[in-house]
Structure prediction request, 1497 residues.
Amino acid sequence: MLSEEERKEIEAECALYEHRRPATSEALKIVQRHRGWVSDEAVKDVAEILGASADEVESVATFYTLIFRQKVGRHVILICDSVSCYIMGYETLKEHLGRVLGIELGQTTSDGRFTLLPNACLGVCEQAPAMMIDEDVHGHLTPEKIPDILSRYA
Amino acid sequence: MAVLYVDNQPHEIRPHEVGKNLLKVCLGLGFNIPYFCWHPAFQSVGACRQCAIKLFKDEHDTKGKIVMSCMVSAKDGMRISIDDPEAIEFRARVIEWLMLNHPHDCPVCDEGGECHLQDMTVMTGHTYRRNRFAKRSFRNQDMGPLVAHEMNRCIQCYRCARFYRHSAGGRDFGVMGWHDRVFFGRFEDGVLQSEFAGNLVEVCPTGVFTDKTQARHFTRKWDLQTAPSVCVHCGLGCNTIPGERYGSLRRIRNRYNHRVNGYFLCDRGRYGYEFVNSPHRIRQPLLRENQAALRPISAQAAITHLGNLLHSGRAIGIGSPRASLETNYALAKLVGAENFYHGMPTKHLRIVRAMLDVLKRGPAPSASLHDMEKCNTIFMMGEDIHNVGPLMVLSLRQAVLQKPIAEAAKLHISDFEDAVIREAIQQEKGPFFTGVPGFTKLDDQVTQAYRGAPHDIARLGFAVAHMIDPAAPAVEDLPVERVQFAQRIAKALQDKKPLIVAGYNCGSESIVRASANVAWALRKKGFAAHLAYTVPECNSMGTALMDGGEIDDAVQAIASNGIDTLIVAESNLYRQLSLSGFDTILRRIKHLVVLDCLPNETTAWAELVLPAATFAEGSGTLVNNECRAQRFYQVFSPAGDVRESWKWLSAAMVASGRAQSEPWPDLDAVLAALARDIPVFAKVPGITPPSSFRLMGMPVPRESHRFSGRTAIDADQTIHERPPEPDADTPLRHSMEGYPLQPPASLLGRYWAPGWNSDHALNKFQQEIDGPLREDAPGVRLVEPSGGQPSAEALNIEYLGLVPPAFQRRAEEWLVIPAYHIFGSDELSMHSPGIAELAAKPYLQLNQADADSLGATPGQLMTMTVESAVCTFPLKVGPGLPDGVVAIPFGLPGLPGVALPAWGKIRPAQPGEPTGVRQA
Amino acid sequence: MEKVLTKNMRPGEPMEIDEYERAGGYQGLKRALKMAPLEVQELVGRVNLRGRGGAGFPAGKKWALVPMEQAARRPKYLCINADEMEPGTMKDRLLMEGDPHQLIEGAITSAYAIQADCCYIFLRWAYKLSARRLAKAIDEAYAHRYLGKNIQNSGYSLEMRLHTSAGRYMCGEASAMLDAVQGKRATPRSRPPHAEVCGLWGKPTVVQNVETICCVHHIVRNGPEWFMKLSKTEEGGTKIYGCSGRVNNPGVWELPMGTPVRDILFEHAGGMQSGYQFKGLLPGGASSNFIRQEHLDTPMDFSHMEAVGSRLGTGTMVVMDDRICPVGVQLSLQEFFARESCGWCTPCREGLPWIARALRAIEEGTGQAQDMDVLDLNAKHIRLGNTFCALAPGAMFPLESALRFWREDFLEHVRQKRCPWKE
Ligand SMILES: Cc1cc2nc3c(=O)[nH]c(=O)nc-3n(C[C@H](O)[C@H](O)[C@H](O)COP(=O)(O)O)c2cc1C
Ligand code: SF4
Ligand code: FES
Prediction:
């Protein structure tokens, strides 16, 4: 069930268009903003409110990188694996992060705190290597800086 | 004529092919260009990149550039190369890419041997797989009893998703994911909801979607015995190719008829075939003596018995709209035209006759499915088309796009650019108005719908006609909003190509009359209106064209006149009559003789049962909803004493001493007699070549030249090769021997051409791609408006009257209307396990307010008394039904044929009251 | 040198609308509103403003395709491409974070020129700060009647909406972006018809990069001659250049169009970090061809970069040094492209992952001679025209050039069965 708030936000988005379907990707983002990810259940709920089928919504949901169709941790770490960061030490950083968190790319820590995902260029190449945790960008990373940064996310 | 230079050779192309895509034009010229994402029915999107060719600016350009032939319009004087080395190499790369992840499981793949991907792989010369890395793999989904899913074989051509969504309007299937993880499937496992899902099997160029019913008795294409046939599961007359092996029918495939069903079939038509293989089939004559059980007798004894019955007493016959013209005619001949009755509910007969009357009088002709696609404005009265004329849905879905596409053309978008056109037209749809008694699956295509009782729908139609031409009868006391709606419709219909759709769904003759007035008024105003009618059965129109009484008259005759013998040809009277009528017949008739293929409520009471051939086991003629007569051919000789009903009847004629001295020797003889006796059928013999027809002295083989095991097929029983089963009725032969090249289209039961093992071999049989077949024979239309297409002034239209009064709900009674179901309402297909699994369960449907007024909740058992039947069913609460109206499913097994609409009473079922139907 | 696009920028919060107006903001727009739309178009046409999103198509030519007659189909749209997912690119972020009103003014001016009814800013999901600042600036612009009905009493009306992406490189491709705005899967469209005729919701639409748009009102305000003179070459204006990699001072700078590569690399980016040698660079993001030492004196503009076999692209260069394995760099690039393919056309969907797998094998020491063939073969056939859109051909630029320049390094991996850059 979508919450009242989610419903309202989606309705507001729908109101911008002649039809409801263009709000699909936006609606999924709204749900994700509220719950961190988009469950099967939520896909059906979004479909219903948009007058679409779950298949139609799923078709969109599975296209975009940042619609999470699997449960993620409380904080999502997006580590940039694109060329500038690669040159500036992405591999070492990734391995380090993996070791510290005890997980590999695509996994969530057992306490549900972090999910580690690779991501395309974050657009902060001058600060490479970089990662994004939730809404914050962290640049000029070195393995030494990692523990401190992680400690800011409970 | 325009000229296209292909590899420096000039080729003439038809003027209207200029502007069409090069791929289509080149295929039409006979060239082999490999392709995947293009399909003639849903055009080009340029995704697969397989159809690459070289395009040159002019004769001085030696370099040229690679283009996708499906995305480029042909122009006069254009120079292209298919054999250009660069183009060849690029095409080889594309197939290599596509095959990188393909499982190469052809030997165990049901598509093997008729796989477009195989064909194209060979065509491009790809033989060696260089990918040394792990292949990707997907999880398959369970998509229900009809379609199997094996996603690893996918080459991501996007055809399935495009067909399912755009052509068929299905919303529960599509493309998921991205990059090389693109997945074609459903949100979750479950039955595909589209009535057209089965087409995925043919639309998919490889073995992702295969026929699940065929998998249970799998046979490769080349091992199937096939013949051209016509679907018997509704009135539209789609053309089919049934395939048989070892005496059982293995599958149905589409047979292309550009006027009728084009490339597609509905799932009832595709999967309904398994009744032919039913273990319950009647395969021997059965006789009941002294109230005992039916027991087998020989064919000769059966004929003698029937002959004696006819010799000694008065006999009448009841024919059937699901039997061939030949059978109905033979029965009428046997009992005498005055003793022949139509084996369909009286209401249906009257409606069908009303349609015939309208079509004969004209001036609006009936539209073929192909004509419908080209219409641009639609008014549909009373039809839930998915359930009563399924394939018409695809045509109507095309028709609503005509206007927006014409608009898009102004942006200089080529008409074959599917994706682009869809972007350009967005949600736009041409005017499509409906009056229906509830919600239908087509509602999302509709501009505006009126939901009302049948009478009110008819009144709306009459009102529209009157607004177009005041000479047409007016409708009194129409509410203001309906007047406005009628005006809106009347205005929209006055366009180039209006289409008026009506039919039997509501059981209302008034609707048919109203439809006629609308179409005629439009014709009078100079608009090329067409009529499209649905009819209940595959030969409703054909039988209705014959003289004969109504079935209720037959009951009367039996009740009053002391009829001794009733011969029923392929009709289950239980479905055609009220319970009391059925009961009367059983009680009063001395000798009940039934010809049919499967046991039913009628055969259960018969004295003599004769095993009738199904469509696959016999040949004959059916007349579809537009009055197009089409021939179906025997696919295989049935086991046992099964034969066409007309053959039994013909033999009985001789045995009884009536009419002939000798049985009709073959189909041609019946046809000749039919054409002679009933002038409207004069053209019927000529729709296909006579049985004596030979090509270079040879008959046309039903088996492919690759048919395997001919000499070994019976090796477990005899070492002698079995001679081909004889077939005196057709120019076809039960053999792999015969004329090896293309037969005339009407005898074409298989698509194969060198290098083209899949259905796409069809390309080689069309005069032009997506056009008529070579030596086209799309059947013959028997009824055209009299006097052709007269000028507006010359039209002396006599409008039809009898505007019904407005529907008034009753205090204690409910108007019971039939709800048809694609899976469930058709008698024969319900003997096919897959269809039966998907069939609707009995219910009784009211709208919310009415359910509330009865204090009833969904699922609750309700009992309804209508005519002589008492039905106890669970309640379904459905939106859209008018107040005071209740719907019950039509024709589910066990349901008697109540003549609907009728008035009935409803009450909550008493505790312990059994579900089902019983006599009042 | 005159700063144009970055003139108003400063550390901390960007200018609010009042301050922006005081600094001369919205003057260009006001001037434009007094001109006929076609006159504005003509001005932009005169300076041959080439698109800064990578393809370099002249904005004026694009606008000229928009139907301007009274009966033209409406609404018309302007879509601003702020997706910026090209690896190595961070210039539009600077413009949006640093001076959001500049983008909005440019957008309104451009929209006016084509008489658009609605403007979408399609913003990359990761740019959270840009999103906040743009949203605020849009609100301010509405409040000051630069947006909405009857802008500044000119009779012209425009709505503006910020649409944030759900993430996918493909969305940056102009036609795929239209799908994304429409809430669908972002699959590119074939041309013709051009978006200018049949774009968003089937209506006339112009798609333009952030930086391109930011130039427009300056051109209107200061005139074409001024704009042409900003540049060092024939291609007018300034350009936001950037540099990342092992340089001393990675960053983004506004410089005259046509500033030589060497100046950017050594002067502005401060040259290579000590211990690192210059090996080559991608001049304009991941989908450009590597250039080497011998090309360093080339002016960075569209035509000069093309002349040396590369492209200006986004003008933000990625420097490759001698201590990073060129196969690894290539692997990173190609895995990016393979992952970001929309899955629509065969060469891209199937070819790119094949390349990536071959590269991974080579880099990880399991490469075989035939893997090199896979690279060559694919690079040869994944070309513009052979694919549906420019994504996959773009991926081949760095690959093809790397194979040309550093083939030995690839072969060495295969020969040694390991990456020589790793211990
Ligand atoms: C795969 C791909 C990604 C692209 N990404 C962007 C992008 O992020 N931002 C952008 O402005 N242009 C991008 N482009 C270029 C756009 O297609 C388009 O040319 C540009 O937005 C037009 O604006 P301009 O003419 O002002 O440069 C991309 C092109 C391709 C093929
Ligand atoms: S499933 Fe079949 S039809 Fe669909 S994309 Fe794959 S190969 Fe094409
Ligand atoms: S058939 Fe032409 S690109 Fe697929």
Chain A has a mean pLDDT of 95. The longest helix of chain A spans residues 24-35. The first strand of chain A starts at residue 75 and ends at 80.
